[in-house]
UniProtKB/TrEMBL annotation:
Gene Ontology molecular function: structural constituent of eye lens
Gene3D superfamilies: Crystallins
Gene: Edsp_0
Entry protein name: EDSP protein
Domain Beta/gamma crystallin 'Greek key': 2-42, 43-81, 87-126
């Protein structure tokens, strides 16, 4: 079973809540903006800064997180229901899926190749992807979902062809 257990203090201390399904607004459950550590079993979860899955997303794959990068900031939680096996995304050099393209199936640091800071559009064939502005999983990031077609990074993602690193979310281990 997929679940996330969230704690109000670091190192799994203080009050806690366990969830097995999406929570669009943690404030309604008296647990908004107070998560400092968490544990994930099974599929990844996405924590959002604002209710109704808005604001900056943070992905948490299966494991224990004695501290989170933005403590006391999460207002919504979403379980990743998508099949994460065999991920694939196609990156394009120019908007509207034009120019040179690159098919990616694993974590890739684009800083070591031709496509660094040159991606302007993408199509996600399979998996859920984290796209990072800087090499080494750095800087601003966003999620790319299966079936997503972003025709122009500049207006749609405000990335402005600054993609330098990407990785697929890892599936959780079935119980």
């Amino acid at each position: 079973m997929n679940r996330i257990t969230v704690y109000e203090r670091a190192n799994f201390e203080g009050l806690s809540r366990e969830f097995t399904c999406d929570v669009p607004d943690l404030h309604e459950l008296d647990f908004g903006d107070c998560i400092a550590s968490l544990k994930v079993v099974g599929q990844p979860w996405i924590a959002y800064m604002d209710p109704k899955y808005e604001g900056e997303p943070y992905a948490f794959e299966e494991g224990e997180y004695p501290s989170v990068g933005r403590p006391n900031s999460f207002s919504a939680l979403r379980l990743v229901h998508h099949d994460l096996g065999d991920p694939q995304i196609t990156l394009y050099e120019r908007p509207n899926f034009q120019g040179a393209c690159k098919v990616v199936t694993e974590e890739t640091n684009l800083a070591y190749g031709y496509f660094n800071d040159r991606v302007a559009s993408h199509i996600v064939q399979r998996g859920v992807w984290l796209l990072y502005q800087h090499p080494g999983r750095g800087g601003w990031h966003c999620l790319a979902w299966p079936g997503e077609r972003i025709a122009d990074y500049k207006p749609e993602l405000n990335f402005q062809a600054r993609l330098s690193h990407l990785r697929p979310l890892r599936p959780g281990q079935p119980l």
